[in-house]
């Protein structure tokens, strides 16, 4: 039976960054991905968030994976909050000692990570669906189906589950606890051939509901509307979406409608699985934790997990030190809960709730934020990721402690 040191299940940002870093150290890595390369790179259903924290940008650049991101990504030095009919800009460099963020679609990052991995001569086993994990206590063995429909096995010294929010492997952690929260609303998202509402993102709080105005390029807008969780996409013809976006922007800006490239509905939820490991098995990325998109943290958390696990495997294989692998869960939970906190904060701060009391509190909070440099600093520090990817921003350059 074939054997590798680290078997990685899932070729999203988490699995691919880890594969790059481990293969770069000369470790034997296998990446198994259930979907095809075309699906991962092009499927319109895969349009995901597009904000890289300052630390995430540093990690990718230091790993030699950021060439296209640095050219085509858009550096943003602030965001706008819109409420009470006015725009309030948060100046990130001023509030965070010079930090900014990068707007770059997750899908583009995945394209880059796949291309560069293959160019380095490594393999990604697309259309290899993992259907089981055997002998976890002794010799973890991945059971997978090949594109030809055969069932085969791969023995791994370690297995990493980076298989996304619908993770099959999550259930491999005996006694794992799933801490979660759902919200009574969803996001109706559009990608459109249209000019973005502004040069930076606008997070708009409006009595009719929250709206977010983002972008993928100066000619592609990415906008979202808060809608009830039971809403149906069929009830939202394009014209209604544009009209509603503009109503929620009244008095602060307006968007010009353009052809839609994509339309989707995403319920908001928060989830943390703990522990994130068992024996020789580790979970990372969306398989281990979900954040509502309001804080733009999902892809960044995936990259944090990858750097942390990389450092732990490196200590294990190069210094024979199992300590960092054993400490993976408590270490990861620090950045995970920080991002959960911020995503929850942004979600409750910006979405209009049904309960008028809750809404009164929310609006008081928002107005306070508009006037308080302290609260603005809290938001900006979290948005640029000082305590998430910022914790790892220099580590790819630094030697591992033995
Ligand atoms: C996006 O550009 O898709 C985006 C930006 C910020 C968010 C969520 C999504 O908070």
According to CATH, the fold-level topology of the domain at 3-77 and 100-180 and 269-354 and 384-392 is FAD/NAD(P)-binding domain
> Which stretches are low in confidence, meaning pLDDT under 50 for 5 or more residues running?
none
CATH superfamily of the domain at 3-77 and 100-180 and 269-354 and 384-392: FAD/NAD(P)-binding domain
The number of strands is: 19
* Rg, Å, rounded: 21 Å
Helix % is 25-40%
Shape descriptor reads globular
Structural class: alpha+beta
Q: What share of the residues does DSSP label as strand, in percent?
A: 25-35%
Quickly count the helices.
Answer: 12
Keywords: NAD, Oxidoreductase
EC number: 1.14.13.2
Domain FAD-binding: 3-341
Enzyme class: oxidoreductase
Keywords, separated by commas or semicolons:
binds P-hydroxybenzoic acid; FAD/NAD-bd_sf; alpha+beta; FAD binding; PheA/TfdB_FAD_monoxygenase; eight-stranded mixed β-sheet; EC 1.14.13.2; FAD/NAD(P)-binding domain; 19 strands; 402 residues; single chain; NAD
Describe this structure as you would to a colleague:
This protein is α+β, with helices and mostly antiparallel strands and about 400 residues long. The chain has a domain at about 5-75 and about 100-180 and about 270-355 and about 385-390: FAD/NAD(P)-binding domain. Helix content is about 35%, strand content about 30%. The chain contains twelve helices and 19 strands. Helix 1 (about 15-25) runs parallel beside helix 6 (about 105-120) and helix 1 (about 15-25) runs parallel beside helix 8 (about 300-320). The two termini are about 35 Å apart. The mean pLDDT is about 95. It binds P-hydroxybenzoic acid (PHB). P-hydroxybenzoic acid binds next to strand 14. Keywords: NAD, Oxidoreductase. Its EC number is 1.14.13.2. GO terms for molecular function: 4-hydroxybenzoate 3-monooxygenase activity; FAD binding.
């Amino acid at each position: 039976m074939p054997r590798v040191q680290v078997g990685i299940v899932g070729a999203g940002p988490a699995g691919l960054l880890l594969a790059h870093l481990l293969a770069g150290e000369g470790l034997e890595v296998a990446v198994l991905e259930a979907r095809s390369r075309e699906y991962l790179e092009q499927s319109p259903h895969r349009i995901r968030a597009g904000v890289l924290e300052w630390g995430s940008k540093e990690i990718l650049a230091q790993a030699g994976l950021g060439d296209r991101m640095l050219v085509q990504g858009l550096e943003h030095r602030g965001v706008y909050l819109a409420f009470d009919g006015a725009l309030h800009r948060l100046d990130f460099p001023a509030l965070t000692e010079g930090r900014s963020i990068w707007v770059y679609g997750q899908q583009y990052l995945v394209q880059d990570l796949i291309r560069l991995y293959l160019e380095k001569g490594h393999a990604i086993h697309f259309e290899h669906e993992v259907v089981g994990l055997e002998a976890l206590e002794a010799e973890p063995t991945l059971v997978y189906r090949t594109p030809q429909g055969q069932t085969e096995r791969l023995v791994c010294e370690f297995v990493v589950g980076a298989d996304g929010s619908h993770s099959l492997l999550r259930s491999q952690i005996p006694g794992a606890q799933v801490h979660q929260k759902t919200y009574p609303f969803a996001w109706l998202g559009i990608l459109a051939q249209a000019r973005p509402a502004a040069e930076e993102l606008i997070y708009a709080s409006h009595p009719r509901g929250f709206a977010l105005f983002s972008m993928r390029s100066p000619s592609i807008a990415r906008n979202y509307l808060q809608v009830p969780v039971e809403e149906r996409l069929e009830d939202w013809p394009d014209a209604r979406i544009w009209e509603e976006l503009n109503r929620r922007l009244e008095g602060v800006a307006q968007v010009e409608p353009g052809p839609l490239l994509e339309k989707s509905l995403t319920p908001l939820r928060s989830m943390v699985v703990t522990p994130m490991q068992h024996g020789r098995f580790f979970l990372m990325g969306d398989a281990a934790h979900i954040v509502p998109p309001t804080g733009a943290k999902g892809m960044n958390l995936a990259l944090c997990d990858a750097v942390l696990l990389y450092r732990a495997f490196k200590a294990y294989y190069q210094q024979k030190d199992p300590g960092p692998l054993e400490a993976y869960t408590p270490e990861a939970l620090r950045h995970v809960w920080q991002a959960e906190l911020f995503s929850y904060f942004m979600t409750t701060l910006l979405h209009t709730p049904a309960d008028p009391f809750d809404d009164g509190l929310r609006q008081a909070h928002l107005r306070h934020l508009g006037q308080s440099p302290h609260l603005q600093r809290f938001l900006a520090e979290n948005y640029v990721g000082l305590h998430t990817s910022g914790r790892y921003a220099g580590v790819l350059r630094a030697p591992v402690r033995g």
